Amino acid sequence: MNTIRDIRFKYDITNIDLSNVLGINKSTISTILDRDINTLSIKQLCSLREYTKSTFNELLGEQVFTPDNIDNQTDNTKHTSLSDNLVIIEENEIHLHPKFAEAIRKAIQDNKE
Predict the structure, then answer these.
(1) Where exactly are the structural domains of the chain?
(2) Inter-residue contact 25 to 19 (CB < 8 Å)
(3) Which residues pair with 96 in a beta bridge?
(4) Is the pLDDT of residue 87 over 90?
(5) How confident is the model at residue 102 (pLDDT cuts 50, 70, 90)?
(6) What DSSP line would sit under 13-62, residue for residue?
(7) Which of 45, 61, 62, 88 could crosslink 95 through cysteines, CB 3.0-4.6 Å?
(8) β-bridge partners, 94
């Protein structure tokens, strides 16, 4: 799992830009850099994905979301990104595909265990 610091270095994001993307005070950004990326809210994770133009798997640093656990595809091909329609941001509202939301819940639950 990537830390927020890992993402900051990988995508060459300044602390000020990172605080703006995550919607937090720039004076507190240094206190969260060593946290795992999975501690971010869905809204923050989506904002970071949009800013970095990367996939959720790349941000998380592991293959969490695949068509097999999102769309029930079984074509045995390797996938590294999610369909664009799984997360839609409209007028400050985030809409998740139901299977995507369930995969997030399962990943969080598995992580707690």
Answers:
(1) 4-112
(2) yes
(3) 87
(4) no
(5) confident
(6) --HHHHHHHHT--GGGHHHHTTSBGGGS-HHHHHHHHHHHT--HHHHHTS
(7) 88
(8) 89
